[in-house]
Design a protein that fits this description.
By secondary structure, this protein is of the alpha/beta class. About 45% of the residues lie in helices and about 10% in strands.
């Protein structure tokens, strides 16, 4: 990977994808890239499209897959400040959906936030094919399809680093997101990013910490230097497996925490639930090849805490609405974003059965989501399990 600190390095790029899923990550790649761009007096340009687009900052290549309408929400005034006075080459606007922007460029997902004047849109995937870094921030169920499209469009550099920020496990295969990318791009280095990174807070400049995992220490350090800022602290690790599993599995437990909130079971109950969720994450995570020590870090315990308690958590909100007697169909019908815990519950349940791991919380959430099991019955069965010694 070419040094990101080199002023003569190639451009930054981002591929945005909607596909069939509405935006799961309203700040997505922008929340990751904006601290880096804000810290440098560069000339970033964002090209947003319903299928694909690109970010060009003139010094580093990066690509990400997102839904245009929701990802636009990550563009706060900090982008306008970072690009003040820049002269940007215009890009052809191809079918930018009217639903993506309000009149005069105001964003739908964050009322009052406006797109910078130098933001254009394109559907041309080729705009990012010279990138040094490709950031994937898609719904997990769309990652394979989108990655194949990127491959077929022709990534021109075998040393282009692929950074996955997608949290999920593939149905059927049980593959992590980095494993899917490795299968499709066998010659390219892979890295992952995960942690308690609620996008709305990141783009507002609130202090945030995350972890980047890569088998190549130099790649991880380069990404750390480029993407990090005084408000976005990045740690590095070589434990890609645990980082991904922690980020994926916590979404299932966030649904359970939301159910507890919706049912009004109280703080004692929720604390007990999340503690046992950690035990379950450790148990299944280790069966899937993870390391216990990493699960106690940002991508495990850190993300579990944020997702189970935050008002911004989509997965917790799904559970809360279930607890208030809404059906899953009703919830999904009016959600503008993807709650990854829903598909991950199915994948986690499949993995647990295959690996013969005891996962009572995952089992009950699976039964609620996919077998229409009554919530109170599911809670009663969890509380009615045989007494035993506490083990983590």
């Amino acid at each position: 990977m070419r040094s990101v600190s080199d002023a003569g390095a190639p451009r930054i790029g981002s591929v945005l994808s909607g596909g069939g899923a509405r935006g799961a990550y309203e700040a997505g790649a922008i929340s990751i890239l904006s601290p880096a761009l804000d810290a440098r007096n560069q000339r970033p340009t964002l090209f947003v499209g319903t299928s694909v687009g690109a970010i060009n900052a003139g010094y580093m290549g990066a690509s990400a897959h997102l839904d245009a309408e929701e990802q636009a929400a990550g563009l706060l005034d900090r982008w306008r400040q970072a690009t003040k006075g820049s002269v940007i080459r215009p890009i052809l606007l191809q079918q930018l959906p009217l639903t993506a922007l309000r009149y005069a460029g105001e964003l739908l997902s964050v009322p009052g936030v406006r797109l910078p004047n130098n933001v254009s849109a394109t559907h041309n995937l080729d705009d990012c094919m010279e990138a040094d870094l490709i950031v994937f921030v898609t719904p997990s169920m769309a990652l394979r399809e989108i990655a194949i499209r990127v491959r077929d469009a022709g990534v021109r550099k075998s040393d282009t680093v692929l950074l996955s920020c997608t949290k999920g496990i593939e149905h059927g295969s049980g593959l992590r997101m980095s494993e899917i990318l490795s299968e499709i791009f066998p010659s390219n280095p892979i890295a992952v990013l995960s942690g308690p990174n609620l996008a709305v807070e990141v783009v507002c400049g609130l202090p945030t910490a995350t972890v980047i995992g890569s088998a190549n220490e130099n790649d991880a350090i380069e990404l750390q230097r480029f993407l990090g800022s005084e408000h976005f602290r990045i740690y590095t690790s070589n434990d890609v497996v645990s980082i991904e599993l922690g980020g994926a599995l916590k979404n299932v437990f966030a649904i359970a925490a939301g159910v507890s909130d919706g049912l009004g079971l109280g703080d004692n109950s929720k604390a007990a639930l999340i503690t046992r969720a950690l035990a379950e994450l450790l148990r299944l995570g280790k069966r899937m090849g993870g390391n216990e020590r990493t699960f106690y870090g940002l991508s495990g315990v850190g993300d579990l805490i944020a997702t189970c308690f935050s008002k911004h958590s989509r997965n917790r909100r799904v559970g809360e609405r279930l607890g208030r007697a809404e059906t899953l169909a009703q919830i999904q019908a009016d959600m503008k974003m993807v709650a990854e815990g829903i598909p991950t519950t199915k994948s986690a349940f499949e993995c647990a059965r295959r690996l013969e791991a005891e996962t009572p919380i995952i089992d009950q959430i699976h039964a609620i989501l996919y077998q229409q099991k009554p919530l109170l019955l599911a809670m009663q069965e969890l509380l009615g399990r045989d007494p035993k010694a506490e083990r983590l």
